[in-house]
Each structure stands twice: as C-alpha cells, then as structure tokens.
Amino acid sequence: MKKLVGVLIALVVALLGVSIGARTLIDQKVVKKNLMQAFRDQSGLELTMDQVAFQVLPWPSFHATNVVLTRPGCTPFVSARSVHADISLLALLHRELSFQDFTADGAHIVFHRTREGRCSTWLPFKTDDQPETASHQVRDQTIHAQWKISFAALHMSNADVSWQDDHQGDEQRGGFAISSFDMMGMRSDGPWIDLKAQHDQTPFRFRGRIGPTHRVLSASAKQDTPWGFSFGLTFGPENAQDQMVIDGTMMDPHRLRGVRLSLQGHWEDLKDLEGLFPHLKLPDVGHVSGMADLREKNVAGANEPHGFAEALRSLPSRLYPVQVHLQLGHLVFPPGTLGVEEALHLRNLQVDGDAALAPLMIQGDVDWGRFSWTVHADFHSLEQSVMAWMDPGKPSVPLTMQIKGRDRTLAALFSRKDKDNEPNVTQDGVHLDIEGTVGRQTSTLSVKGGADMLQLPEFPGVGKQLSGAILHNLFVQNTLSVGPLSQDGLTMIGLRDVHFESQEMGGVGSLLLERRVNKPSHIEGSIHFSHLNGDALAVSSDEAAENSSEGETALTPVVSGKNPDHSSMSSSDRMQAFLKGLHEHDLMLDIMADQLHVQELDYHDVHIKMTMGGGRLSLDPVTGTVEGVPLMARVAFDNTVSPSRVHIEASPLIVPSSITFRLLGQPAFLSGPIQWDGILDAQGINQESFFHSLNGTVGLSLVKGEVKTATLVPLAGPVATFLKLGDAMVAFRCAAMHMDVHQGMGTVDTLGLQNKHLALKGSGTVNLNEGSLALDLHPRFTFVGNSVSLPIMVTGSWMDPKVAAQNAVDGEKQLSLDGGADDPDLCQPLLQKAREGHNGLPIPAMQNASSEGGGFLKALGIGGKP
Q1: 3-state secondary structure of 795
Q2: How far apart are CA 272 and CA 281, in angstroms?
Q3: What gap in Å lies between CA 457 and CA 565, rounded to an integer?
Q4: Do 557 and 368 form a contact (C-beta atoms < 8 A)?
Q5: Rounded distance, CA 412 to CA 203, Å?
Q6: Are the C-beta atoms of residues 594 and 573 closer than 8 Å to each other?
Q7: Tens digit of each residue's pLDDT (9 = 90 or more) over 155-211
Q8: How far apart (Å, rounded) are the C-alpha atoms in residues 480 and 403?
Q9: Is 709 within 8 Å of 861 (Cβ atoms)?
Q10: pTM: predicted TM-score of the whole model, two decimal places
Q11: pLDDT digit string (tens) for 352-364?
C-alpha cells in the first residue's frame, strides 16, 4: 500500500512538472515576458532583467541579475545586482507566480520627482480606481489568460535608499543605507516588517506589523474595515537611543484616508530627523517626550489629495491632535519668526490636553534676549485651539494666561553655574494676567499686571534714557489686538486703553503698528504722560549697563541684524539709514506730558507731534513751558526733493546741554540749560553739505551754567593761565552767542560770558562746515577791587583754539589795569540779543567782586566753591 501511495505521488509531481515545463517554464523567454507583463499590469512599473533562470527541480525557483524597475520615461525606481526566490508549486496551477522568499542583494531604491512635478516615484503603485480586469492577448488566434504575481516574503541586504525632489526648483535630497530589510507574511492579515538601516554614522531600526498588503497595493481592494499598523522606531546608538512607538489605523491605506495615529516615545533632538528627511524643516526642539493622538481632518472637494504620493506629502497638514501630553526641554524660534527679530527660546515646556473638548494647558519658561519669564496658559479646548491655528476661517479660541518674571535673586547675581538659564536682566516681582481670544485672523487680549522692578528692553535708535531703564513699582493695563497672521509674521499689533504707572513715569496712551504688503509699515499712536522723570530713568539705565558689563555679555531683545547699532556707524551711514527709514515707515505719534523732569529742568504741558512718511519728517508743534517760559519749536525735513531740505525754528526752545551737543555730534564743553532762538534752513545730501548750505539766524544762551576749564582758558587769554590750577568746570551767571549764518559761514555779532570775576565779550566769524574760528575777544578779570583786561584773537577751532594777544597801534600789547569794569553786568545785553526778544530763564543776580583774593580764587574754581 505504501509503495502504491509513493508511486502515485511521484506520478502526480512528474506529470505536473512535465505539464508546466512544457507550457511555460521550459520557454524562458515566454516566462520572462509574462513576468514583465504582470509587473506592468499590477504596478505600472517596467521590469527589465539581464539573465533570467527558472527551474523546476528539485523545487521551482527563480533567479535574475541586473534587475531594474522603472516608471516609463522616468528615473529607475529600483535596481538590484541579483534577485532570487522560491516559487510556490500549487500557485502555478492557478497561473500565479508566488515568490516565497524574494531576496534582493545590492539594491538601490531611488525616489525622484522632477522640477515639473512629473515622474513621482514616491508612489510605486497605480492610484486609479479602475478595477483589475483580465487581459486578453491574441496571438495566432490563441487567447492567453493573465499571469499574476504575489510575494510571501521580501528580503533585502546591502541596499540603499535615496530621494531627490526638484519640484518648483526647491531641490531636496536625502537617503540612508539598509543593512537588512525583512517583510514576512505578506499574504497574511498582519505582515511583519523589520528594517535595520544607518544614516551617516547613526543607526536606526524600524519594525512592526501592518494590515493586509493588498489593501495598500490595489486600487480596487475593498476598504470597509480599519487597516491597522503598529511600529517601533529606535534612532541612534544603543547607549543613547531615541525611541518612538507608532500605532494607528486607516480606513483607506491605498489613498491614505481616515488616518488615526498614536505617537509615544522620547527624542533627544527632532532636527536629527532632517538628516533623513531634509524637506521637513523641523524647528529646533530638544528633549521631547510624551504621547499624542492624531486624527485626519476631513478634506473634500478640490482640496482633496489625488493619489498616494500627494496624500503622503499633505498628510502632516491634515493631521490634528485629539489628545496630547508632551514635555519639551527646549524649543527655539529663530529671529524673524512671527515678525519678532530676536530669537525666542521656550524651555521646560509642558503641553497637556486630555481630550478634544478638554482644555489645553501649556506652561514653561520663555527667554527673549536678556529677559526670562515663566508662563502658564489655558486654552478653552484642544480641538478649538488646533482648529483656530490650522484653519484661518475658524473662530478664535478663548485664552487665559499668567506670566511671571524669573527674578534676579542674590544667588543668581553671584552664581555663574547656570548662565544659560539665568536671566541677565534686572527684574523683581514681574507678573501679568492675560485674558481674551487668539486666532490666525485676529486676537484680542486684555493685559493687566505690574512689577516691583522691571528693566525695559533696549530699543534700536533710542537713547539710554529709555533703553534698558529700570522702572519701580510698575502697574500696567491695556488691551492688545493682534492679527492677521501671515507667512511674514504679524501684520498688525494694536495697543489701546493703555494705562501705566511707576515711580519714574505714568500715563495713558494707544499704539497701532501695521505691516503692509509692498507699502511702508504704519505706526500710529498717542501717549499722554502724567509724569516722566528722565533723570531717574537715565540713572537706572546707567546702573543697569554697569551691572551688565560686570557680568556676562547680554543679548538685546530687539536689536538684530536688521537694526544695526547706530552708535558705531559713521555720519554718512547714519544719514543713509535715516533717509531709508523716511520711505519705509509711516509714523504719526502724538506725545504729551503734564510734567517732565530732565537734567534739573522741570517742563510742564509738553506736546510733541511727530509725523513721518513719504520721505518727509515733521515735528510740529513742539510746545511746553519750563519755569514759566513758554516754548515753541518746529522741525521739518523733506527728502522728496533733491537735495534734501531741512527747516528748524525755535522761539524759544530750552533743552539740556547734553542733548544739544548730542544733536550737533560734538563733545560737550558746557553744562546747563541751553536756550535756542532763531530760524535755520539748509539743504544737502550729507552732514557736511547741510552745514555748508546753512542759512538763517540763531541765538544760543545759558544761565546758571558751567564751562570746562580747558575750553575757557584759551578764550580768556594769557592772563587767565592760572585757571588751569582750578576745577575741571567753572560756573558762570550767563553765556550767550548770536550769529547770522549764510552758506555755512556764521557772523557772530554777540558773544559773551560772565561770572563773579570774569567778563568776556566779543565778535567774529565761525565756519560751521570746517569748525574754524576767527574771534575778537575782550576778557576782563576783576579781583580785589581791580580789573585786568587784554584783548585777544582766537583762531583755529573750538577743540583746538589758537590764541594771540592783540597789539595796539604802536605795536604794544593792550594790557590794561584799572579800578573797575566798564560794564559790570554783561548778561542783560547779551541775553537780550541772543534771545531775539523772547522770554527766557531768569538771570541770576549780579554779585559784586569780592575784595578778598580768596573769594576770587574760589570763584575761579581754586581752593573750593565760593
């Protein structure tokens, strides 16, 4: 019996082998042709092979060399040095080539999309929805049924994968080397995948199970149940591996529809993925851990992706979270993000949303330049938050937020152990409560808070009186409006109902900033100070700068490459930057101050209206009072004509001497309130040409001021050389100058200075462009009831004057000694001429010259103050 069974089996096998061999396998060319046709019908790819061998005994198998799969007219998709596989014997009875262990060695897999978007071999499968039908080929009136191809298992070794996307001229490349790839059970309901690969020197492994492969490969496969998948990914060496678990389902894996995804794991640096996928352009995110559940947003109509490749590329934008619990060690937004020019660092970030309709909570530390805060934000719901961010048409989401400053404690001031995380800024008790709605189209937030001590940012182009200044006992309240959000950042920021109060300043105001496409940016606002103490701000700013210089070098929160440091620029560069700003910005700013204190001057009812745009700048009016003296000034600059024109009018304007010399770009040699009176006009393209074309009249005067001894000694003549023994500054009752200017040449008709023992008057000319002098001066010293005078000529420049005594007609020096001065009070006529009839600060009372030599020396700064 056993012999009979054995004979029968052998007979069946022999007959089957002979039958199949006779029909197909014996004719290698026919089998090769059928195999190529089957690949074309089932995948849309062209298959070419050099040497092909099919064998029946002892078991059906297949072997080929130089195998290439190509989409017609495109770059080869797969090429391999050799492939081999066993073939199922029973499947051959159904005209099916079922490869049991298809193994490829030395394979190269290439994904390439052309600049025109063609040849996208990101998708090696057909994407049409036409059902598969039998193909009938007619040859010699004989009909041949179509052969089918299937795989039970796929193996690769010593392979590599690369991709290149040239679409729209944005070339992107990537790739990795495959040590081994195994896909088992491809005809089962849960195929197993195991990929071991390496990018540069970084190994990674990807393994897990997926649903039936035919639902991915076939456009006509029935898609009526969820198609599941579960993967594990490790990235990096074993002692420092990033890990991620990916689970989920798809309703249509062939078209990537109905995606539900769950991610869980930890990642040291997300930017590592850009080594594999450079087109991702991931943010700088480090130390990521947690989980997230994602769902696909329904896309219908014209926005629905067509084909697997397009669906794959658009998948990240179609996914949104329905549950999230993430911890991020740091997240960095580079300069320029959302229109903010300084980098924004988020540290120790915690993001939690238990469900789609549950609140979304975000908390962590925020570093912006030198400033650092702790932030806690609660959004109304996770779903509403995501929709408001992803879809501009969705409504804004309600938000509550608390911001607290990271205080500079004594430990932080003296410790350098945590330099990266300690804020290098002076602040204490900073807190803000924010409530409102946020969205891509519009955001409206109510802000209320304060600080025991807060250092202001360093604003570009703003002096030390505000940049970096410290405010004490600050309270602030306003309504912030933002939006809409574009690719270039925020297009509008508005502050209204602003109220602020501190020891240094207080007031109300509003501000609107608009960034317009192909138009100058627009800034409009009004600020009404109830009080502003410029001296307190300047002192705190200087102290902050000293503290910063003693510690680590600090970043400025606003100044960046787009806003260069004007203090280090040449006068020509500053002029070009100024002219450029006249055309790039539209500005309307209205500033008022009930009380303004600057360098011992108390201003009241100050009003400055500034407009800029279209190449023009106007300060009109500039009004106020100081010690009862009404002030009025106007400034206009016009760059719409060539050369540019400037007009300055003061009737009068009283400002501290430091501000005057800063505007003139000259070192200060006087101290005190300088009063400007007159009208000046000029035109030019740079500072030199403006001075050269200057025309008009101007009077400058001071009362109760001081002058540098080094400046006064040459003007007082040889008889005052002993002043060098005194203090660096010499006090005076008054000083004044009045001149007529024509084409940069000033004719000085009045020049004088007077203190208790010194009276100086004269006239001459000044070349404003070159800074040269030609002055005829008459200094007079009075002491112990006597006076000494010696007329002198001063040439050279203000900084380097040349002094020579004037000679009389007979050639002798005009030194004179007498018992008194011709005019003991020079201030009245000097100031009347310089002020051009306008009111000014009161003139100190005239003091009689002391009959004691000690009082004379003290008046000149020798031996103490008088």
Answers
A1: strand
A2: 11
A3: 15
A4: yes
A5: 41
A6: no
A7: 999 999 987 777 666 677 778 899 999 999 998 999 999 999 998 888 999 999 999
A8: 15
A9: yes
A10: 0.74
A11: 999 999 999 999 9
